């Protein structure tokens, strides 16, 4: 059921974000590889600063436009869970790019980890290559916190990440608790835009 949920998640996130096709965008590519600890988070912040001031290639300064911010950032995720604090900090940094008008996309090209799932949910869209997988966000996979405390911190982070996506909030909850039963419904007269609901709400419809 979780793989099916992931397929629906991709659909829902794509519907809720701007299409990538169309006019060309100035893009940056940020690969994140290795344990997601404070050092990788520091590297992420440095590369985000660079992405907000893209420089022309060496030797092309005179014929290139002045430095400007990337309009799209693609995060290629191959991380391993470190501390909860580091993962949440990285997710929040990516999530804040939405408020700055920078589109964000996560690329999953392998067996995505719990930290990859959290970062992917911080992006506006995510894409998975053939044979890749993602989720769930298992609190015990993270270091330095008891599972109960890790679950609390991750739950609070997911609430923040999903606050502007009310239609897909149950999907975020299901990443932390895969036992949840999630249904997709389409209401007539609302542009046939899908909404995701938990089992209790679905039975009340």
Structure report:
By secondary structure, the chain is of the alpha/beta class. 39% of the residues lie in helices and 20% in strands. The chain has helices spanning 2-16, 38-51, 84-95, 114-122, 147-161, 169-176, 199-204; strands at residues 27-36, 72-81, 103-108, 125-128, 182-186, 194-198. α3 (84-95) runs parallel beside α4 and α3 runs parallel beside α5 (147-161).
Strand order of the largest sheet: 1-2-3-4
Let me know the average pLDDT: 82
Q: Order of helices and strands, N to C?
A: HEHEHEHEHHEEH
Q: DSSP helix count? A: 7
Distance between the termini: 22 Å
Characterize the biggest β-sheet.
4 strands, parallel
What is the beta-strand fraction? 15-25%
Low-confidence stretches: 1-22
* CA-based shape: globular
What Rg, in angstroms, do the CA atoms define?
18 Å
Which key features would you list for this structure?
globular; about 200 residues; 6 strands; alpha/beta
């Amino acid at each position: 059921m979780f793989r099916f949920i992931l397929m629906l998640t991709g659909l829902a996130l794509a519907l809720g974000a701007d299409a990538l096709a169309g006019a060309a965008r100035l893009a940056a590519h940020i690969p994140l590889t290795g344990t997601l600890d404070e050092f990788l988070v520091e590297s992420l912040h440095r590369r985000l600063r660079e992405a907000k001031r893209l420089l022309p290639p060496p030797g092309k300064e005179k014929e290139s436009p002045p430095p400007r911010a990337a309009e799209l950032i693609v995060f290629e995720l191959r991380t391993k869970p470190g501390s909860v604090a580091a993962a949440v900090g990285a997710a929040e940094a990516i999530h804040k790019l939405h408020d700055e008008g920078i589109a964000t996309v996560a690329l999953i090209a392998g067996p995505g980890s719990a930290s990859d799932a959290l970062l992917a949910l911080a992006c506006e869209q995510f894409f998975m290559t053939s044979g890749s997988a993602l989720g769930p966000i298992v609190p015990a996979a993270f270091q330095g916190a008891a599972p109960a405390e890790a679950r609390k911190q991750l739950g609070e982070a997911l609430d923040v990440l999903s606050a502007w996506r009310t239609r897909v909030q149950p999907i975020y909850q299901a990443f932390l608790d895969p036992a949840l039963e999630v249904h997709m419904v389409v209401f007539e007269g609302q542009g046939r835009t899908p909404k995701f609901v938990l089992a209790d709400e679905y039975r009340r419809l």
